[in-house]
Structures are given as structure tokens and as C-alpha cells.
Write a structure and sequence with these properties.
Blueprint (H helix, E strand, L loop, with lengths): L12 H7 L50 E6 L14 H7 L7 E3 L6 E3 L2 E6 L5 E6 L13 H12 L12 E8 L2 E6 L6 H5 L16 H6 L7 E7 L3 E6 L13 E6 L3 H10 L4 E2 L7 H5 L4 E16 L9 H9 L3 H8 L5 E2 L22 H9 L8 E7 L3 H17 L2 E7 L1 H9 L5 E6 L7 H8 L6 H6 L3 H11 L4 H18 L2 E14 L21
Parallel strand pairs: 1-10, 1-11, 14-15, 14-16
Antiparallel strand pairs: 2-3, 4-5, 5-7, 6-7, 8-9, 9-10, 11-17, 12-16, 12-17, 13-17
Organism: Microbispora rosea
Protein name: Peptide/nickel transport system substrate-binding protein
Pfam families: SBP_bac_5
Length: 545
């Protein structure tokens, strides 16, 4: 672990922008609960109608797809493990989503859900239970038929973890099984996010009692209903899944195997893609996109995403318990310049803790935007009108984190705030921010389901386990709005609650919202049917070569 502080005499913002080297920003903080997913700006209800549609298509035309082939994806870091109930890393989730499948799946636009392992679902009149009818003929990778007993086991397993994804299922009272192909999920109170919660990766369906194995044995060689079965994993190097020949979607998957290969260096990933050793580059740097777009036989996509970057301020440490200090810092951030410099224009300044591809996002919420005069005014009203000294807890080796810190350091100097920069290993930064052992730092978030409640709980409710996004923020009025929105099924009323919530959260400056970022991907022209959901996950059963 390295541990040092920079010289407090910072260069100007213009000097930083002129010389900034822009890196790969795809690395996902392990702490986030998908957080732990910029398309439609209209809000949409999640549970307005529970239907029986059986459409499971995600884009690829079965008539045009060619069967066979071994596809290779290059990425900058490895998965952690395959335990769907406790692991929060995207590299793990995007891989095990090909093994475990949920009862309902997120729609392509990220604004709702559709039937998946359940062929239909219906809410009770009192909105306190949902009855799901399972597809018949679905088998696990070991040949065992999937029944309601497996579904109950899977949801119960995820609900009882400690320090994992159990918060997603916090409203569930019980799961009952009237017959082999019927499941009833009953909640403690009306719970609007229920179907979206059931689509979350932690609620993927696995065999009851781990198919006779211990939990550790099972997750070392996992079994699900998905299009790909467990293959081999050379940790730190490559993970391979193989085709499920008995997949319930007839004719799919098309590929024989998918391999996620760890290639930390962004130039090496680009070379492997161009040389044909890889078919998909999961995280090309934004600085390289223009060149990649002009490379023959390659395609560049910027998929709408729920990635949002934030600055966290620990309210358990003075002076960050002072709202005027937090507002001053938030006003001092030139978001347009960050987007232009770090993302090469491939992003937009954030106005809300929610993102445009999330239901009930409010594009009319102004948020706090760059205004140094307002920053000075807020600081004058604060407990430290003449400034103070603070320490930014940086993730060593993360160039985006470093760029944000340097730009902020220059801006805060204009306010009389001295910001030193302490570099620690990324895992140490994760641990320290999780324990609220820091003053100011950078983090980001991607959603895992089609409902804002996942982030609202994590970011605004200190009792949910996320320590209010590791800021210690505690506002009873805002928490009350979070809880009201959880129980409101009327889409117009729910939108009003979330609009008020976004405005009040912005005013509190509990986080400084930075920018919204798409998911950049570079693929070989031979790859067909590959699409990334706003959560970052993808359906490899639809992909062909």
C-alpha cells in the first residue's frame, strides 16, 4: 500500500485539462451494490400491470444467427467469485448472469421487467403478494427440473445473508409454493419495487439445497438454468463457460463457449481485438474510441448506462456535517470540463443522484452545477468561512480518480480550501470509505434492477446497510420520502415523490453528482446480436459469430 500526500500547491484547472492523460475508467468499485444500468427520459411504472406475455427476445434474430464458435471477451480485471448472494463486483455479475437466471428479466430500455423463468405474474388487489407461474420444462444444468421448491430456496437464501444483497429482499415476508409450478411472494407491506427486485441478480434461481452440495462446493462449480454451464477458471487469467445444450430457449445459445480473458493493459486489449485474438473489448478507454471507430472490421458502441460518478463527503467528519460546506464544494466542480476532458465528450453532467436510464428520473431537477460565485457564497455562510484543510482518499492507479482529484484540488484552492491527496490501494480505499474512515473521496454506481429504490435505499437510508453511500448522511424527511415511494403503486404519485426526493437530495449536497457515462464497447464485425443493458449486463444466448 502506498501512502503519501501531494503538495497542496495545485496547478490551475486549465493546466490540468491541457495535460491530462485519459485512462480506462471501466473498473468497477467492489463495494458498490451493483452497487451492488442515456436512453429514455420518460419515467415508467414497474408494476402498473402484471401480465402474461412470454416474449423473451432480446435482439438477435434466430433465423439469421450462425451456430458455433468460441467467443473471447477481454476485460481489465477478473471476477471475484460466483456467489450471487454476497458478491457485488460487475465482473462477477456479468459472468454469472449467464448461469443463473431470474423469474423476471429487465427490459432492454432498463425501465421495466418482462417474464423469464416465470411465464406470468399477477399482483394481489392489496398489492401485498405476487403470484408467479413458472415455465414448465426448464431444467438445471445437471438435468434436474426447476420447480417452485427451487425458487423458494433461491429467494430465501438471498434474503438471509448478512452484509450481502439481503437488503433487496427486505420487504419480503415469505415465499410459498402452492404447487410445483406456482410461487407466491408475500411482502410485509405494499412494495412497489417487488418485481424489479425479483429481477436482481441476487435472486437468480439455483437448485434447492445446492443440489446436494455444500454452499462453498456449489459456488465453486455453480449450476443454474442459464444458456451457459460452468467450464474452467484460471483465476486472474481467464474464465470459460460452455454451451448449455438443453437450454429452455429453443435453438439458443448459438455460441459453443464464452471466455472472459483478463488483460489489464488497455493497449494490449486493443491489439488483441484488432489481431483477432478477442472478439469483444469490454472497456476501451474513451481516449481510444475515435481511432477504434476508424479501424476496419471493428465496431464501437456506447450503450446507455446507469453509471454515475460521485464525490462522497463524510458527514461524521467536520466540517462536512455542514451543508454549506458540501454545497460550496459541489458548486466548485466544473462538470462540463470533466466530461470533455475525462470522457472526451462521451457523457453528460449529472443533475440528480438518479440517472436518465432509471425509472422516475427527473430531468428538470437542476441539481447543483458549476458556479464559483455561489461556491464562495455558500462557504461564507459555513462554519469555516475562511476555508480549511482536508484530505482526498485516492485510489492509486485509477487515473480518472486522480484527474477528478486534481481538478477539484485546483478549484477548492480558489475558495481557500487546501485539499491534500492521499493515495491508497483501491481495496484499502474501499475498506476505509466503507468504515467512514475518510474525509472526501470519489466513487461510482451502476444499477442492478429497473427501480430507483435500490439506489435510494443505499444512498439515502443509513439503516439499509450502505451508510447513505458511505457518507453518514441522515435526514429523516428524506428517509420518509424514500419509504413513501417504496409503497406507492400509482405511477404519477410515485413520480412526484421521486421528483421531490431528487430535489431535496441535491439541495442537501450529501453527494456531489459528477457525470453520467455510457458503457463503451469495441467489437469485431463478426459479432452479431451483442447488446448491453443499462445495468451493464448482457444476454450471451443472443450472441453469435
Amino acid at each position: 500500500m502506498s501512502d503519501h500526500s501531494t503538495d497542496a500547491s495545485a496547478p490551475s484547472a486549465s493546466q490540468i485539462f491541457a495535460g491530462l492523460r485519459v485512462p480506462d475508467i471501466s473498473r468497477r468499485r467492489m463495494l458498490q451494490l451493483g452497487a451492488l444500468g442515456i436512453g429514455a427520459f420518460a419515467s415508467a411504472p414497474l408494476l402498473a400491470a402484471c401480465g402474461s406475455s412470454s416474449d423473451t427476445s432480446t435482439g438477435a434474430s434466430s433465423g439469421a444467427a450462425k451456430k458455433g464458435g468460441d467467443l473471447v471477451i477481454v476485460r481489465d480485471h477478473d471476477a471475484v467469485n460466483m456467489d450471487k448472494t454476497t458478491v457485488f463486483s460487475n465482473a462477477s455479475i456479468w459472468t454469472y448472469a449467464q448461469i443463473y437466471e431470474p423469474l423476471v428479466a429487465m427490459t432492454e430500455d432498463g425501465l421495466g421487467v418482462k417474464p423469464w423463468l416465470a411465464e406470468s405474474y399477477e399482483m394481489s388487489p392489496d398489492n401485498k403478494s405476487c403470484t408467479l407461474k413458472l415455465r414448465k420444462g426448464v431444467k438445471f444444468h445437471n438435468g434436474q427440473p426447476m420447480t417452485s421448491a427451487d425458487v423458494k430456496f433461491s429467494i430465501d437464501e438471498s434474503s438471509k445473508t448478512k452484509g450481502g444483497w439481503e437488503f433487496i429482499n427486505s420487504a419480503i415476508k415469505e415465499v410459498t409454493t402452492p404447487d410445483e409450478y406456482t410461487v407466491v411472494v408475500t411482502t410485509k407491506y405494499p412494495w412497489a419495487p417487488l418485481l424489479a427486485d425479483l429481477s436482481c441478480p441476487n435472486n437468480g434461481i439455483i437448485p434447492k439445497d445446492y443440489a446436494g452440495k455444500t454452499k462453498d462446493e456449489f459456488y465453486a462449480n455453480p449450476i443454474g438454468t442459464g444458456p451457459f454451464v460452468w467450464g474452467t477458471w484460471q483465476k486472474g487469467s481467464a474464465l470459460t463457460l460452455k454451451k448449455n445444450p438443453s437450454y429452455w430457449q429453443s435453438g439458443k445459445p448459438y455460441l459453443d463457449s464464452v471466455t472472459w480473458k483478463v488483460v489489464a493493459d488497455s493497449n494490449a486489449r486493443a491489439i488483441q481485438l484488432q489481431g483477432g485474438q478477442a472478439h469483444i473489448n469490454e472497456s476501451p478507454p474513451f481516449s481510444s474510441l475515435a481511432q477504434l471507430k476508424n479501424t476496419p472490421n471493428l465496431k464501437v458502441d456506447l450503450f446507455p448506462s446507469t453509471r454515475t460518478d460521485y464525490i462522497m463527503m463524510n458527514q461524521h467528519k467536520k466540517p462536512y456535517d455542514d451543508v454549506h460546506v458540501r454545497r460550496a464544494i459541489s458548486y466548485a466542480i466544473d462538470r462540463e470540463a470533466l466530461v470533455k476532458t475525462i470522457l472526451f465528450g462521451n457523457g453528460t453532467p449529472a443533475n440528480s443522484f438518479l440517472m436518465p436510464s432509471t425509472p422516475f428520473y427527473d430531468k428538470n431537477c437542476p441539481g447543483i452545477q458549476y458556479d464559483m460565485n455561489k461556491a464562495r457564497e455558500e462557504l461564507r455562510q459555513s462554519s469555516v468561512p475562511n476555508g480549511f484543510t482536508t484530505t482526498w482518499l485516492a485510489m492509486s492507479g485509477d487515473a480518472v480518480d486522480a484527474a477528478i482529484a486534481q481538478v477539484l484540488q485546483a478549484s477548492l484552492k480558489e475558495l481557500g480550501i487546501t485539499m491534500n491527496i492521499q493515495n491508497v490501494d483501491p481495496s484499502a480505499q474501499h475498506d476505509m470509505t466503507g468504515k467512514l474512515d475518510y474525509e472526501i473521496a470519489h466513487s461510482y454506481w451502476t444499477m442492478d434492477l429497473a427501480d430507483p429504490d435500490e439506489l435510494a435505499q443505499f444512498a439515502l437510508d443509513p439503516s439499509s446497510g450502505g451508510h447513505s453511500f458511505d457518507t453518514g448522511f441522515n435526514d429523516p424527511e428524506i428517509m420518509d420520502l424514500v419509504h413513501q415511494a417504496q409503497k406507492e403503486f400509482d405511477k404519477t404519485k410515485r413520480q412526484a415523490l421521486y421528483s421531490e426526493l431528487q430535489a431535496k437530495a441535491a439541495e442537501s449536497a450529501f453527494l456531489a453528482f459528477l457525470f453520467y457515462t455510457p458503457f463503451p464497447y469495441a467489437t469485431a464485425s463478426t459479432v452479431k446480436g451483442f447488446k448491453v443493458l443499462p445495468t451493464g449486463s448482457y444476454h450471451m444466448e443472443d450472441v453469435s459469430l
